[in-house]
Structure formats: C-alpha cells, structure tokens
C-alpha cells in the first residue's frame, strides 16, 4: 500500500520478489515472484507463495518490491522497498524511508486436493466506457479463517460488452477456500482500462465475521540460581562463562528466547531467579531485576544482561522450588482465558528439585489454563524428576487429579551440544526440539474450549 511512484507519466508497475535465507547462512536466494501489476501504487497480488513453516526455527524472509524493466530479472528495476523479517513477524517498509507498506497474510494449508471448474457470465452490467460499453473481468476473494478477504483469482477481460461470458477455468479448492466448503467466496466485477485503473461494475455478496483479537504470546523466564550449580566464578560451575563462550544457561536462554520473542509483540519478558540469597521480605519467586512491581526485561538481550548482572551480585543458595514460579505464571494466565493470551514459561535448571509434590500440583492446575512450560536441563544430572514432569509417557497427576493437557516439554541441553563446539548449531538444534510441541499445546487448549481462530488487523 502507498508505494513510491517511480514512473514519470503514470504510476509504478510493481512486482514482489520473495527471497529466503537458509539456516546459518547469510546468503539470500530467490524463492519466487508475483505477477506484475500495471500502473498502481496499491497492488493486490494474486500469486501466492507456499512455504514449509517451522515454529521452532528462525526462517528469515525478504520481500523486494520493484518496478521491473524486464519480467525476467530484478536487476533492471527501480527498487521500491525491502522488508527482511523472520516468519511469524510483520515489518513495514525500510526504516527512515517512506516506501509504503507490505501487507502479509499467512494461513496453514489444508490437505484438500479437490479442484473445481467453473464458468460464469453476467447480464446488464453498468456502462463504464465513454466511447464503448465496458471491458469486464471478475475478481475472486477467498474468506480467510480470521474474517478478512484475500484476492485469489482473476479472469480474463472480455472487451466491449455488458453481457460477458468468461472462459471456463479450473482452480484448486485449497486456493479458493482452503478446503472449507462453508467459507464465503466474494466475487467482484470490474471494468478494465488501459491506464490500469479498474472501476466496479457489480459487487457480489460477502459474509461479515466479527471475531475477538488475535492470540498474544507471553514469554516468562526462570533461571536456577541454587547452590547445586557451583560458584559462578569457578570453571566447574554450570554458570561459568569463559571469555570465549557463554555458559550453558546463557546458550539455552538465547536459543529459545531468540525464536519465541518474534511472537511476542511488546518484547517484555518477566525473568525470575530460582533461587539465591535474598532479603527475608523478598517475594517468591524473585525477579532477576529485584523489581517485584515490574519484573520484565526488554527483549532477550535484556534478560541475558539481567542474568549476568545477577551472577555478579547474588550468592547462590537453595532450595530449588519450581512451584512458586509456575503458580505465578498460572495466576497471570488465569486472568484471561478466552484464547487472546497464551503464556510460555521457560525454566532452565540443573535438575535438582526440592518441591516435587507441589510442582506436580501446580502443573495439574496450570494444565487447564492457556500456558505451556519448557524445562531445559543443563549439566551432567540424570534428570529423572524432569522426565517425570514431562508427562509424555504418563500424564502428571496430583492427589488423584490428572493434568488436563500435556503442557510440559523437557530436554537436556547436553544432547544438543555440537561436537565441533559450534554454539550457533547447538542453539538451533535445541530451539527446534524444545519449541516443537508449543503449537500443538496451544491448539489443544483452543480446541478443548471451542475457541475459533482470531481476527488479525492489517
């Protein structure tokens, strides 16, 4: 929308080219490009891009909007705007330049393989041309699951008639309604002009959907500061960071946090300690920034900075209690249960736990709320207690009550350490496995409460 006008005697003829960046690579490769739309600063492109999407991986995309000199190469074009962004985020234009806005809409594709063939005609359309009749064509819009409409097909133009008959065409049902035959398809009739402008000749009916706001993901971190980790200043400590590499705690935090922060709009993350010597009146759990009224840190870098600062200023202590921080996040999650908020708690620990019974009780209670728990184990421990909390084999129970959903995912960090010492590769492997269950856990909460997909504002 509102692209720069690069033509002298008319408007721009834009095209969008999608580039993808491989994991661990700095090279951008062209994935595909849309059709060119003549003489407009507000194009609606019909051609779609189909990509494999992985919640647990960072997949960088770049959208170049250009005015092509030739359809076969972007090199002869005037570049209007570039928008690199990770999948799962939305970015507008280029900072410092008013290039316009790129609107992206993504939806998981169904497995429907049906196709539909149709032929349409119209009668007594409006006369739009001064010296002739009209040059009508049809535009089809699919109804998305969030209530918006997206262009999905254009017919050919039939010249100089008010009673057009368009050629038969075949379209995948997945493109028309994503396999959902109950969705509305809107059809508009436009008059074509040589200058690229189009005037409505007739407009078809469309359903109006009113849905609540989209789901917001909220991320909370809890890091084990108990004495069982060893003194941070000693190389034998799990918190020890050499001048050349981060500690396992910091690597786990960055690996998970840098992926999940793309799904949190405000990038403010509450961070807690489990547990260090603190004043007797300090709250439990203890905020890393020692601010009980506002325990949030700005971005993952803020959490990491707060963690490193805590290592320099606090003394590691015990016991290792998980229940307080789980109950803290559960209390926040219980305030909004309509699906507009979902919470993810990351606990990084050496595996020693002092309140197993209370933790099981907290997990059973939290399983009925919009939240998930990720536990990353660092160090050489066997982690039997953490495996028990995971609940993959046997659902967690407490006092005769079983967890309503499996909301805990545990992984030992040592299983993802690259043998060559490549920390970037270790972090990517960890993030991929530890976040893999979050989408299904979120969906399980929505489905058990019959919560429908949410509307997204452009």
From TrEMBL:
Molecular-function GO terms, alphabetical: calcium-dependent phospholipid binding
PROSITE patterns assigned to the protein according to its UniProt record, in alphabetical order: C2 (PS50004)
C2 domain mapped to chain residues: 1-95, 98-219
Alphabetized UniProt keyword annotations: Repeat
Protein's GO biological process: cellular response to calcium ion
Family: Belongs to the copine family.
Name the UniProt record assigns to this protein: CPNE9 protein
Superkingdom as given in the UniProt entry: Eukaryota
Residues spanning the membrane: none
PANTHER family (UniProt xref): COPINE, COPINE-9
Any Pfam family: Copine
Zinc keyword on record: no
GO cellular component: plasma membrane
């Amino acid at each position: 929308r509102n692209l720069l006008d690069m033509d002298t005697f008319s408007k721009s003829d834009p095209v969008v080219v999608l580039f993808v960046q491989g994991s661990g690579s700095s090279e951008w490769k062209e994935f595909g490009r849309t059709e060119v739309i003549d003489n407009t600063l507000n194009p609606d492109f019909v051609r779609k891009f189909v990509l494999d999407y992985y919640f647990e991986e960072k997949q960088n995309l770049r959208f170049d909007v250009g005015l092509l000199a030739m359809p076969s190469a972007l090199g002869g074009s005037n570049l209007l705007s570039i928008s690199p962004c990770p999948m799962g985020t939305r970015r507008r234009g280029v900072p410092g330049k008013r290039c316009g806005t790129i609107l992206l809409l993504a939806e998981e594709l169904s497995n429907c393989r049906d196709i539909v063939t149709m032929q349409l005609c119209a009668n007594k359309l409006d006369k739009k041309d001064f010296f002739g009749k009209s040059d009508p064509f049809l535009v089809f819009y699919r109804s998305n699951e969030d209530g918006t409409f997206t262009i999905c097909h254009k017919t050919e133009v039939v010249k100089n008639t008010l009673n057009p008959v368009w050629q038969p065409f075949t379209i995948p049902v997945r493109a028309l309604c994503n396999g959902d035959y109950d969705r509305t398809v809107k059809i508009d009739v436009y008059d074509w002009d040589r200058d690229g402008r189009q005037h409505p000749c007739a407009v078809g009916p469309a359903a109006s959907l009113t849905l609540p706001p989209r789901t917001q993901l909220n991320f909370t971190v809890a890091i084990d500061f108990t004495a069982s980790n060893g003194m941070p200043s000693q190389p034998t400590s799990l918190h020890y960071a050499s001048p050349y590499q981060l500690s396992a705690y910091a690597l786990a935090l960055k690996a998970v946090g840098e992926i999940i922060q793309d799904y949190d709009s405000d990038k403010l993350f509450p961070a807690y300690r489990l547990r260090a010597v603190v004043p007797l009146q300090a709250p439990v759990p203890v905020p890393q920034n020692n601010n009980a009224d506002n325990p949030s840190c700005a971005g993952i870098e803020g959490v990491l900075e707060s963690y490193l600062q805590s290592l320099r200023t606090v003394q590691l202590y015990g016991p290792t209690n998980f229940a307080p921080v789980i109950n803290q996040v559960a209390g926040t999650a219980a305030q909004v249960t309509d699906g507009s908020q979902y919470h993810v708690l990351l606990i990084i620990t050496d595996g020693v736990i002092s309140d197993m019974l209370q933790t099981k009780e907290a997990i059973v209670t939290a399983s009925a709320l919009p939240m998930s728990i990720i536990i990353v184990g660092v160090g050489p421990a066997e982690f039997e207690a953490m495996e028990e909390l995971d609940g993959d084999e046997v659902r967690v129970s407490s006092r005769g009550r079983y967890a309503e959903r499996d909301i805990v995912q545990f992984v030992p960090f040592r299983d993802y350490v690259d043998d060559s010492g490549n920390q970037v590769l270790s972090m990517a492997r960890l993030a991929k496995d530890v976040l893999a269950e979050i989408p299904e856990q979120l969906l399980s909460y929505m489905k058990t409460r019959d919560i429908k997909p949410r509307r997204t504002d452009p």
